[in-house]
Amino acid sequence: MDEGKAGKIKFTFCMVAVGIILMVVAVSTDHWAVLSPRLEKSNTSCEEAHFGLWKLCTKRSFVLTVGPDGKGCGSTDFLGEYNCTYFKHFTSGENAEIFQITTQKEYSISAAAIAIISIGFMVLGTICVLLSFNKRLDYFLKPAGMFFIFSGLCIIISVEVMRQSVKRMVDSEETIWKQHHYSWSFACASSAFVILFIGGIALLLISLPRMPQNPWETCMDAPPEQQ
Length: 227
Description:
The protein has helices at residues 3-28, 94-103, 105-132, 141-171, 184-207; strands at residues 33-36, 44-51, 55-65, 75-76, 81-86, 179-182. The chain has 227 residues and is of the alpha+beta class. Strands 1, 2, 3, 4, 5 and 6 form a six-stranded antiparallel β-sheet that branches. A hairpin with a 3-residue loop joins strand 2 (44-51) and strand 3. Helix 1 packs antiparallel against helix 5. The longest helix has 31 residues, at 141-171. The protein is elongated, with a radius of gyration of 24 Å.
């Protein structure tokens, strides 16, 4: 592997590393979506929530004044009552039944499972890139690119599943939350998809054999790369 190709691989892997960090942050945090009720009057209690793949956090506070659009909890007193609950994806009972109504358990299970698969592809891609720095193992570069592409596709599928979960939750008659917006964890996951997908394609292009330097050369007749 010549120095030019090694430099391209290092630069691409640095870019992919940013996507890896963003994905880890997105999967491990709980600010994918923020939910709030629509308020009609002031001097009443208000409950907001934010959640991710693993945890739902709620904040109950007393509203002093309501905004003109009725969005959010407006001006509240103090910090309110804050509570977080981990999703019990694989249990049954009362808690699971409540979670089924308010957060659409089947969607969250799917999003979490797909995110774990995405992390698996990401780990395999990282291992393959590190192995490819050995000049005798540079054939690992192509599977590394494919693994990063698969990882990006999985995380964007998880994002879409989560988006559908939020939409179904807000549209449900069983929930008090009627308004929502997507937060920074959601943005991290979306950005990770873009970076990993582009980085994977770049690694695939780098792994392609050298093109002929002259019109009459074929790829098979081209001189081998210097080791």
